[in-house]
Amino acid sequence: MGSAHTRAEMFTTSSPQPASETRSVSPQRLQAKRGRVAVLLNANAKRVNERVRQDFARIVPSEDLFFSRSFEEAEDIASTLIQRRYDVVMAGGGDGTIVHTMNNLIRAADRAAHGMVRPPLPDLGILRLGTGNGLAAACGAKKPIEDTLRVLSGKGPRARPLSLIEEVGGRVFPFASLGYDAQLLNDFQDLVAESQTDLSRAFHKSLPGYFYALFSRTVPKELQGEKARIRVVSSGRASMLDPTTDEEVPLAPGATLFEGVARSVAMGTTPYYGYELKIFPFAERRSDRFHLRVSTAGIPQLLFNLPSVWKGTFRSPDVVDFLVEGVRIESSTPLAYQSAGDARGQQTSLDLRLSPRTFRVLDDVERAA
Fold first, then answer.
1. Cα–Cα distance measured from residue 296 to residue 319, given in angstroms and rounded to the nearest whole number
2. Which end of the chain, N or C, is more open, meaning fewer C-beta atoms within 10 Å of its C-beta?
3. Is the predicted pLDDT of residue 132 greater than 50, yes or no?
4. Do 148 and 56 contact (CB within 8 A), yes or no?
5. Same-domain check for residues 215 and 281
6. pLDDT band at 223; cut points 50, 70, 90
7. 25 in any annotated domain
8. How do residues 135-154 score in pLDDT, each as one tens digit?
9. What are phi and psi of 17, to 5 degrees?
10. How far apart are CA 43 and CA 50, in angstroms?
């Protein structure tokens, strides 16, 4: 089977790439908003126990402390946050909770506009209170109470814009995938749901639980299942990243980025999956595109190279990387789909683009200029 790299090279332009297209850009650091702060916690999150609730109740005024127990309640809270014009919302839970909060706040702001000026979105602080915490890692979140006290005192970190990917006509998110990594998430969540005791649930909702789901469920399905033929077409500007130098190679508008058998298509504007698995090492290279990664590598190859995969340094002819404004993905068979750590069923096609909506997130990570 030919590599995706060879396929993509057919569509490179003949003109040299402008310098502005090739340089890496550090995320812009902004002065964080100062003013009213709300704290929104997912009451169902793994680490939001009674002690955590009491700790937050001691430092946050009751009218500014919210607990969501359902999707409907979370939507109502988001409307309240927009109506009260909070400057900062500290959101606690896993990646799915944070992304649901983003989408709820966007919808609430749109509803409040009524054809007039849309209310501003609050800055978003991310509290490390979930299972995988990919977004929390990307923003340097530490201890939830200490992070919240810093923001309440006006000494919190600076903000930066977080670009998001958008399902055309649908929700926004910072990362997603089709294929075996999404299948692993589905298998992991099924395993947790089937747990009969608190002890087994605690084990399954952990990093060892992911590996147990991988070897007991995902790998057998991958070996026995039909291999999907996938076609990925750019719907805007795009470039391929040279697998040796990591430099951008521009592609013609509307280029077919990949066509053939693939195991996974993943995309992100932030580097990490859960547990600081750096699956998108180029996600923050530029703010006007997102990182798209197509993998034809089998699970055994990735496991053999797990340390470099985890650190984001793994390179192979079987893994090809792009920076894109938008893509259409088509698969010959239904593939498992996840966005921001939420299982989203199966899909045979997706239309994705860089969203015009962004959030300012509080970011405590020191980045090189």
1. 6
2. C
3. yes
4. yes
5. yes
6. low
7. no
8. 999 999 999 999 999 999 98
9. -80, 135
10. 10
Domain presence at residue 10:
yes
Q: Does 173 share its domain with 148? A: no
Q: Based on the domain organization, do 78 and 179 belong to the same domain?
A: no
Contacts of 161 (CB under 8 A, 6+ apart): 27, 28, 30, 287, 358, 359, 360, 361
* Together in a domain, 126 and 191: no
Model confidence band, residue 115 (pLDDT cutoffs 50, 70, 90): low
Q: Give the domain CATH number at 63.
A: 3.40.50.10330
Q: Which residues are within 8 A (CB) of 194 and not within 5 positions of it... i.e. 6 or more apart?
A: none
Structure tokens at 33: 């908003």
For position 225, what pLDDT does the model report? 67
**pLDDT tier at 328, thresholds 50, 70, 90:** very high
Q: Residue 226 pairs with which residues in a beta bridge? A: none
| Residue 325: count of CB within 10 angstroms of its CB | 16
Same domain, 126 and 256: no
Clarify whether residues 79 and 181 are in a common domain: no
Which pTM was predicted? Answer: 0.85
> What are the residues whose beta carbons fall under 8 Å from the beta carbon of 63, sequence distance 6 or more?
none
Question: CB 164: neighbour CB atoms within 10 A?
Answer: 24
Q: Could you tell me which of 269, 259, 332, 321 has the C-alpha nearest to residue 102?
A: 269
Residue 163: in which H helix or E strand, if any?
Answer: none
Q: What is the DSSP letter of 68?
A: E
Q: Are residues 275 and 133 in the same domain?
A: no
> 178 or 180: whose pLDDT is higher?
178
| 348 closest CA partner among 369, 368, 325, 332 | 332
Distance CA 290, CA 365 (A): 20
Contact 330, 230 (CB under 8 A): yes
| C-alpha–C-alpha distance, residues 145 and 128, integer Å | 10
- Is the residue at 31 inside a domain? no
- Is the pLDDT at 334 greater than 90, yes or no? yes
Tokens of 338: 């996840």
What is the three-class DSSP state of 326?
strand
Q: Which domain holds residue 61?
A: 37-157
Give the dihedral sign, CA 14/18/21/24: positive
Give the Cα separation of 351 and 168 in Å (integer): 6
- Look at the block and give the residue holding tokens 């010959």: 332
The rounded distance, in Å, linking the Cα atoms of 255 and 46 is 43
